[in-house]
Amino acid sequence: MRIASIAIQAAHLGRRAVAAAGAALTLLAVMAAPALAADPFADFLESLWPEAQAEGVSGATFDAAFRGLKPDYSLPDLIIAGRKRDDSAGQAEFTKSAFEYLNPKYLASLAVQGRKFLKEHERDILNIEKNTGVDRYIMVAIWGRETAYGTHKLPHDAIRVLATQAFTGRRKDEFRLEIIAALKMLQAGVPRSKMRASWAGAVGLTQFMPTEYFKHLEDGDGDGKADIFDSVPDALASAARQLANKGWVRGLRWGYEVHMPARGDCSLEGPPGERTIGEWMQLGFQRTGAKPFRPEEEGIRAYLMMPSGAYGPGFLATENFKVIRLYNTSDLYALFVGDLSDRIAGAGGFHVPAAQVAQPRTAQVKEVQERLSRLGYPMDKIDGKIGSNTRRQVGTYQKTSGLKIDCWPTEAVLSHLRSNAARAPQ
Question: How many CB atoms neighbour CB 341 within 10 A?
Fold first, then answer.
């Protein structure tokens, strides 16, 4: 057992230990071979060394990060042989319905806290808004969503999370890039103790993925350094800089809730159907509430976004909605941030509430996507998640097939798709 332990450690430190021990290490490994149990995770970690070294990570930093590290198989979104995936344990944006995610009471509570937070940090926030062009209320809303105004603490060690996801997660290639970036953060002097993360590896007060860290750091308080872990102004400024770098348009709203006219339906949803607001108005779409669209807004380009299909509100989403989605790739996340920002500013709240529509299981949604794709309906992703394109293609299929158009991947839609396949000539 002692020989096996030494050999495993030597293998883990191989790139330098081989040079020091030479033939003796080789002989030891051969002698110990029968006693060694395969450790795929340790082998995987060692395989990261060439990429880490190429990015400037030292051997000392690399070894310290992974010494004694074990995978965390309790994380969601892993692919483990013999284990059934739990669709209910993943990211809330993709496991909760709009009705659950956009909880009005929670949003109202966060809005109250957001106004207080804005007042406390108003000087820094207004300066950040001036420098980046990002709306102050959007900044505060992102802070509320990510931290619940400081009450939410990140529960995981980022290195362990990212290494596990890169080893056996559903998105291995993406997380391989993230773990290398996290090692670069350690190399740059970020203490391991600060690297607390969500289950997906996002770190810092405004939850940056490590690959975003070096791209968007911003000094928000003027002290000459950027610290997204302990400085509220720096974290806000870095989040705003990320939005600005991804295309934020100064002065543009994130979107508008609209009434669905008789000539419209949810199959019009999604970026492929983008039009000017004036063109949407010609189709009969009007803004909800007391304020109509202003003449100067008619040239703004927007697409229809209906997170619950026909079972809830509809929105015309602008370029800035797309930018918020680049911060967190989810319609519900962007909608949450948009509505919360409006509430903090003194408005907000939807005129048409989201209905309590059942959230289909991932496997069901994925099969719907696969079958639509086989029939020629364009699917940019077959991932079991209900995005705008999935809703659009479901609605288009329903319209073509003479079905009720609700744009929701229900069991009824899946049954119809299956029956179509059964009737198709062989």
Answer: 26
Q: Do residues 208 and 240 lie in contact, with contact meaning Cβ atoms separated by under 8 Å?
A: no
Q: How far apart are CA 300 and CA 255, in angstroms?
A: 10
Asked whether the predicted pLDDT for residue 1 surpasses 70, the reply is: no
Dist. CA 209–CA 211, nearest whole Å: 6
Q: Are 283 and 264 in contact (CB under 8 A)?
A: yes
DSSP string across 338-400: HHHHHHHTT----SSPPP------HHHHHHHHHHHHHTT---S--SS---HHHHHHHHHHHHH
What pLDDT digit, counting tens, does each position of 308-345 carry?
Answer: 999 999 999 999 999 999 998 889 999 999 999 999 99
Cβ atoms of 298 and 281 closer than 8 Å: yes
Distance from C-alpha of 29 to C-alpha of 378, rounded to nearest angstrom: 53
Give 247-297 as a DSSP string: TPPTT--SEEEEEPPTT--GGG-SGGG-EEHHHHHHTT-EESSS-PPPGGG
Instruction: Find all residues with CB under 8 Å of 161, minimum gap 6, and list them.
Output: 72, 75, 197, 198, 199, 200, 201
Nearest to 340 by CA among 117, 104, 91, 127: 104
d(CA 39, CA 35): 12
Q: What is the CA radius of gyration of the chain?
A: 25
Confirm if 236 and 139 have CB atoms less than 8 A apart.
yes
Residue 135 gets which letter from DSSP? -
**Residue 88 pLDDT > 90, yes or no?**
no
Q: How many angstroms separate the most distant Cα atoms in the chain?
A: 82
pLDDT tens for 147-193 read 888 888 899 999 999 999 999 999 999 999 999 999 999 999 999 99
Give the C-alpha separation, 365 to 384, whole Å: 5
Pick left, alpha or beta for residue 204 (phi over 0 → left; psi -120 to 50 → alpha; otherwise beta).
left
407 dihedral zone (left: phi>0; alpha: psi -120 to 50; beta): left
Q: What is the spatial distance between Cα 195 and Cα 197, in angstroms, rounded to a whole number?
A: 6
